[in-house]
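Morning run. Coffee first, then this:
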Amino acid sequence: MRRFLPIVDGCSVEDGPLRTIRSPFDDSFVAEAGWGDDALVGRAIEATARGARTMRDLALYTRQEILRRTSNLLSLRTEELAEIIAREAGKPIRHARAEVSRAAVTFSLAAGETSALAGEVLPLDVSPNGRRRLGITRRMPVGAIAGITPFNFPLNLVAHKVAPALAAGNAILVKPASATPLSALRLAEILGEAGLPPGGCNVVPCSARDAGALASDERIAMISFTGSAEVGWGIKAACGKKRVCLELGGNAAVIVEPDADLVHAAKRIAAGGYAYAGQVCISVQRVYVHHSVRDAFLACYLPEVEALVIGDPMDPATDVGPVIDDDAALRIEEWIGEAVDAGGALLVGGGRRGRMVEPAVLADVPGACRVVVEEAFAPLTVVQSYGNLKEALSAVNSSRFGLQAGIFTTRLDTALAAFDALEVGGVIVNDSSVFRVDSMPYGGVKDSGLGREGIASAIHEMTEPRIMVVEMPQPAA
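And here it is:
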């Protein structure tokens, strides 16, 4: 595969150092990626600041056309982009194809949302001093945005920052994950083909140290970050007056009520707990099952997990590929061992071969173990039993995270009780916590983040309201 170079001000940067990107599956060579230093980050910030002025003046229909062309180009290049994702991230190819499809939808949705960038006309004579005055509001772009993205959805999570930023009339500088920069760099090229003005989207892979200017440079008006809670809250602390949107980690839970369809629940939880080796921030990690149906649920669930195919991400039959690196694999092995040593039962899997970790099901794990309280980001789930719904809701809420949760039940009152009580950004009924449609408001509470993604919600975060007050002339005598 060819070199993938940083894009700054609409041009490929050819004079910088290169890094080799290797497959997490077998360490095979994938490509070379151009790498930025603090000087290139500074150039990219300047280009983004200039690009923000250009994007602000771009007519809505022009933004729509660029976003729609980008969506079409992504669809036409599904196989190329899916192969890049599968090779750089170790994501099974069929999941990588789905990610490209979602990215195309993300840009299409953003094109549609440009038509909703309307304000309001407000009568101000609700107050005596507002007589004969009219208020007109508009949402204005914030300007230059920095997007910092993780490895696990290296195309679509970039799209979720780039597409709404451009739709709203902002420019954006993307720092992709160091392990998976290729699809973000390819997206920047595609945006250029679609007619995006220079500086509208700049992409520079770089170290976390060199990216520090994104928080300190006053020309960056907003940072949109997706990644770990520790890094995200550290960025917020460093940002001062900047606007910040954080989509952080989780240890998502699902509840299985005694009236649930256990076969359906088992299938959806297995799919939601192990897709992309569990390296999804809303991946099912904790499974709370009513004690009266625990054994019946496990009889359905364990065969679903055991049937998952582990192997080469490029094989369409593969369900579970490698975790991203050796450190992740060793950490997962350690956490599983800790849970077992503390008295938990390992019901299925858990073995490790290099970066391949067998899908694991643990049960009855003490609540202080890291597989319960921290974000595992791993192909594992922990099954615990409960006595009543109040107890289950309390267990879900005991986490410091609050991104999404699921509940399986046939009762509307139970679903509504969960919706009211669960301290999360989203409650999914009769599906797992991993369910997401790209138009949904998406984000969390507590340590799971601040603000919301999802196209319309992200555009709201990336704009600010402005009002003009007009005094109407006195009526003629």
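Residues 253-429 form a domain with the Aldehyde Dehydrogenase; Chain A, domain 2 fold (CATH 3.40.309.10). Good start to the day.
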